[in-house]
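Predict the assembly for these two chains.
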Amino acid sequence: MIKINSKNVDVFYGKKQALFNINLDIEENQVTALIGPSGCGKSTFLRCLNRMNDVIDICRVKGQIIINDFDINDKSCDVVRLREKIGMVFQKPNPFPKTIYENISYGPTIHGMAQSKNEMDEIVETSLKKAALWEEVKDRLHEPGTGLSGGQQQRLCIARAISVKPEVILMDEPCSALDPIATAQIEELIDELKKDHTIIIVTHSMAQAARVSQNTGFFHLGELIEHGSTDKIFKNPENKRTQDYITGRFG
Amino acid sequence: MNLVIFIFIVLLGFTSYYFGRKKAYSIQATNTRLTALPQFYGYYLAIWCAIPAFIIYSLWAIFEPSIVKLIILSDYSNQGYLDDELNLIYEKTKSLSRGQFSGEITPYLETSAEKYLNLRSIAQNSKVVLILAIIIASIVYGYKRISSNNRTREPVEKFLNAVLFTASLAAILTTIGIVFSLIFQTIDFFKVIPLFDFIFGTHWYPAKAFVRDASEPLDPSMYSDTFGAVPIFAGTFFIALIAMCVAIPIGLMSGIYLAEYASTKVRQYAKPLIEILAGIPTVVYGFFAALTVGPFLKDIGTAMGLEVSAESALAAGGVMGIMIIPFISSLSDDVITSVPQGLRDGSYAMGATKSETIKKVIFPAALPGIVGSILLGVSRAVGETMIVVMASGLAANLTFNPLESTSTITAQIVVILIGDQAFGDPKTQAAFALGMTLFLVTLSLNIFALRVVKKYREKYE
């Protein structure tokens, strides 16, 4: 089933066009990987999906992105509600300078999701359990989140993202700042999370894309060159540029 | 003459730089590898040329006068003069030799003056000769030492290190000197006025100390109830409080606006405009407070049926607050801007609005810096002088009514030290005691600020 449907998406930074006519459908409850060389626009596209590009003054987005039969670029779209539905995990772990507990309770608090302290405790516990971090931090929930290791911090950020029960989770190179062990843990987690969430991951590691995703889109110079099932893209790409990139001939 | 010698040494220093470098180049030209770049050899020779000469020059300047004095006064020894009288004779000799003496000229004095002039010219000539000799000797020595395997980089670097160290030492020694002069005068003050009276007395009336005839012996009892500093401590903190009530909210909010809400264009113009406030001399703020704000408040107060003094704490404190706004706004703007963009993104991506993000994520993260900027503002407020002197009066009333006039530590120091001063008088020393108090308060504020910043840094990083 299609979760996100993007039609003719163009993105401009000032006068420079960064994305050209992107048409990409994202399958529900699957992992979609976006690959491509640096500066190809894959992160820009990811940030279109929860309107994070609004934060950048000079950025303009054209075209339609339809989620649940609703165009998120429409004027009537409430960004706060949208971002509640579509969570995001960033390249560099960015826990807030607060305690572990407060990091998780942040989203539920601003969206008024818990009526009592007990409910909040429960949300925090489930989120941390889902992010496979509970066992490591359950005794120090009230210590600063910034005191955790890099991998733990990134899982904390994932727990923070899932605390508001988003339908989609966007991940922008979530493992690029982590060591191989922490990377393996996150990848395992992604596999687990796709039961409840639709996941879109931007990655520079082709091996990672092959390991975690069911669908893959290849971006180059602001264009979506090819997309389809990961198996097909990696084993039998149609486009020559895709093949060159995957075999490591450029990028 | 001294200036000529000085310029001569400097010029020679430059010249020897070129000669040192030239020799290094010529060594290099023979395909020999040098241990340092050629200019290091230049610096090396310049240092050799200038430093020994300057050392001799300064030693000479220090010792010459006392040696000349010893020689002149040796003629008068065994004649039963007291030390003071000898000093007087020496001073007379000096002024006679300059042709500025107007008293009675004795033959003795005339001989001494001639001898003095003679000695001075001998000293001057031998100084020039000695310094020239030293320069030549040290240049020759240094020039000979320039060779391919002689190390010049290390001595030059060490010399630079020593110069920089001396510069920082000068700043530190000055601070220590100021503190010591404060301490000794303060101790003298508290020998006459009991510490208890100073800290807990509620009457500050230093004008009373003017009455004393300097020839009479000091009687501590006449100062009772004169130097009770409570009213001016209270005034200082009260005015600083009013100033901070103005400066913190306005400064902080404008800082947040500039950092988070203002577009690049607005920020580009607004920030320098706000910083202009910091460039206005405090004396201008002073008469703005005294001549514009003070009467304005009085008019409003009168219209409302309140009794407002033309020199009110409110006018002084309010204007002082305006003066402090740019410190707080500019510093907190910098701190907020330096909060990592990742934290903002993280919060926005959770669906937080801008104000929620600022309140819950950015403000706590920037808090140590913000507290630092506020405490900096407080020490400005406590140390501010001109505005208070001009706008809040000089009478030290013990009051917490912002509409009345009150006075501060700094303003009272001004009052005490305007006009002729008698050293060793409790009235003058009171200024040192006040200065010491102010110093201690500012110091503890700074220490406190550092601790706060450190504590939050541990928590947030």
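The longest strand of chain A covers residues 2-13. The mean pLDDT of chain A is 91.
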